[in-house]
Write a structure and sequence with these properties.
4-stranded antiparallel sheet; flat; two-stranded antiparallel ribbon; alpha+beta
């Protein structure tokens, strides 16, 4: 392989060739993956720090995300799972479009890109529906207090009547 090949210093750092016999595309993909991991790692750490540093109650996810479009309440986290599935499937269709492009299959690229765009519209539409109903004011449900007890919140998000 490339890792065992000996390269003299002039060839290695003299320009015109990639260090360590790595292609430009592969090197940039590693830069992207590392930057993506650092970005999301930082976001998750900030979330964890904020969540555990506060004394205020956080909503219970299964009760906050408890609705499905056109079917109402009583489906905890099903809609979140559906949106995750749509996002993964649209990622797969994009990979299939790229693969069809490598084979110079114009009809395949068109077919898989249309499927990817439709999946993207469904995902973005689902996000809009979820956030509209979450922020606009669906029943907020229970919250867990610092002492471990649960309290029922009456009213809508942002307009809590009593606690």
């Amino acid at each position: 392989g490339h890792a065992t090949k000996q390269i003299d210093a002039k060839t290695l750092w003299g320009g015109k060739m990639s260090p360590f016999s790595t292609s430009y595309g592969k090197l940039m993909m590693w830069f992207f993956l590392v930057s993506d991991a650092l970005t999301f790692g930082g976001l998750l750490m900030a979330y964890g720090f904020t969540r555990h540093a506060t004394d205020q109650a956080w909503p219970i996810g299964e009760e906050t995300f408890n609705s499905l479009p056109f079917l109402g309440h009583g489906y905890p986290l099903i809609y979140v799972a559906l949106m995750t599935f749509i996002l993964i499937v649209s990622s797969v269709t994009m990979v299939l479009a790229v693969e069809a492009g490598h084979r110079m299959d114009r009809r395949g690229v068109t077919k898989w890109m249309i499927a990817t765009i439709i999946g993207g519209f469904f995902f973005v539409g689902s996000q809009a529906w979820e956030w509209y109903h979450f922020i606009h004011g669906s029943e907020f449900g229970k919250v867990e207090l610092v002492d471990g007890s649960q309290a029922i919140v009456k009213g809508h998000f942002g307009e809590i009547e009593n606690f």
